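Re: beginner question about structure tokens

> Can someone show what the tokenized structure looks like for a real chain? I only ever see the sequence side.

Sure, here's an example I had lying around. Input first:
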Amino acid sequence: MKKQVFFTVIVVLCLVIVGSTAAQAKQLANVSSYRYYLDKETPQMMKKAKNLDMMVIEPLEMNKAAIKKMQKQGTLVFGYVNAMEVDCWNKAFYKKMQKEDFYYDKAKKKKYFKEWDSYLVNMTSKHYQELLIKEVQQQVIKKGLDGVFFDTVGNIDDFVPSKQQKAYRAGMVNVLKTLKKQQPKLLIGQNWGFDTLEKATAPYVDFIMWEDFNYTELQQDDWAQQQIKRLERIRQKEHVEVFVVSFKDKQKSEKLAKKHHFKFMYNPKGSYYNEWFDK
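And the corresponding structure tokens:
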């Protein structure tokens, strides 16, 4: 009798978790307007944010009260976390890094990104995976955000040698699986990394972001056309939503995005998201 009761309780709990997660995923699928903003809150920003379905914010910069206010207004809030790079400006995180947490090329040199003042990381490092998981716990889960947005996942495809990519993807999947196990209702997004999405992360993420989604270049690029079809297949199979950011050709880019049921955002500053602007 006790075993039967225990089993019933477990089943009910599982149904509650699955139901809650499904409800959140449906809310993400219904997103029609979103913004990507990585600076402190401002009165102008807060006024505009109340009309948005979703926001990607920098949890190290934005006040917790502002985050709660946006959520109360019905906005899904995702916390930005750099996955495949360690930012030198984030000193609290950087000082926790160990030698094996960095990526090294054949000449045993680190890969430095001057534009962002950051270093490529070694996603196969168990220590780094633990650091990344703890960062999400501290900056996203404990602050009550709806999800985490992992930037630079695409670095696995772009900068890691092909022979090492499988191991790096396995490391990223381990991070995602651990977070989903700890926090089943946590929504997860990744930036770029279409190969990594298809080969590894699709079952564990809820959306992917495609930056620089510009009509003129896309129409003339066979690779881009293939990726559009690829993402449509992944969305149908794994229910991964596609969010795009256009830097130019606003009207035509938005029309193209809507044609494929992609979530659209326009950012004239390119991949710089520390300035709020009116559409």
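Each token stands for a local structural state, so reading them left to right follows the chain. The chain has eleven helices and eleven strands.
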